[in-house]
Amino acid sequence: MATRLVPRLLARCRFPPAGTAAVAAVSGGADSSALLVLAVEAGCAVTAVHVDHGLRSGSAAEAEVVGALARRLGAGFVARRASVAPGPNLEARARAARRSVLPEGAMTGHTADDQAETVVLNLLRGAGLDGLAGMRPGPTKPLLALRRADTVALCTGLGIQPLDDPTNTDLGLRRNRVRHEVLPLLDKVAERDVASVVARSARLLDDDARLLERLAADLDPTDVSALIVAPVPLARRALRRWLVEEMGPHPPDSATVERALTVARGVWRATEVGAGRRLARRHGRLRLEPSSAGER
Fold first, then answer.
1. How far is the C-alpha of 125 from the C-alpha of 244, rounded, in Å?
2. How far is CA 79 from CA 43, 60, 101, 235, in A?
């Protein structure tokens, strides 16, 4: 069964060309184990990286399981340890710790089910078009067209016993509530597989987002006269891109972008944009400067 399944799944994946050196983040679960299998089958020169967050007793032993699978498949293997910073939102902190020890461009085993969960979570946060487009498919997320059932079936067919992460059933984590409660309820209400519908909508919205990105690239976000006459969606996108470039990787929220537009229109002279900075209008241009008592 697995012999027939591999080429069918590969046809739906987006791995880099054969021979490309690639890093796969492998926790040992079904999705990441399938990622490693399929990356090897795609002809990539793969190194599996296991990241131990040290959050559970015995978690270090999971690296041995992943290392054994990598050796079985002829892939390289590296074990990393990531310290999770204290604070709220454990999932976000663990993700940040994991990213800090993974090389840029590392592949992850996110599937269409993960995509649907991400879109629902972003919707709950009030995200705009980019958030509702979810995770972008490509070489770093080659399995986004697969379902979780596909990765489980592949592991079963190859005799791979995936590791069971108990945090995946912890309903104290919002993603798990979406996975185990919200999406199953939506399936019942819609009388269909909602995850596939949401993932398809994300692909369509991503096409729209990419088009807007290309159009906004020609707009100077510091030129007040250009911003005022531009279509509002393009002005918002140009401002957001500029603020990210100037202030860091995290996009400003919609309220910040709207305040920036208000400054561009001349309603306010300046507004706070976070990170100790404010946006001011001077002589027909927008500029960022150190924050001070807000003048409007």
1. 19
2. 22, 9, 10, 45
Burial class (CB in 10 A: 0-12, 13-18, 19+), 155: buried
What CATH number has the domain spanning 2-110+146-167? 3.40.50.620
Q: Is 194 helix (H, G, I), strand (E, B) or coil?
A: helix
Q: In CATH, what class is 217-290?
A: alpha beta
Structure tokens at 15: 């791995």
- Cα–Cα distance measured from residue 91 to residue 174, given in angstroms and rounded to the nearest whole number: 9
Provide the residue ranges of all domains of the chain, joining segments of one domain with +. 2-110+146-167, 112-139+170-215, 217-290
d(CA 272, CA 280): 9
List pLDDT tens digits, range 70-122.
999 999 999 998 777 777 777 777 777 888 889 999 999 999 999 999 999 99
Helices 2-10 & 30-41 angle (0-180, nearest 10): 80
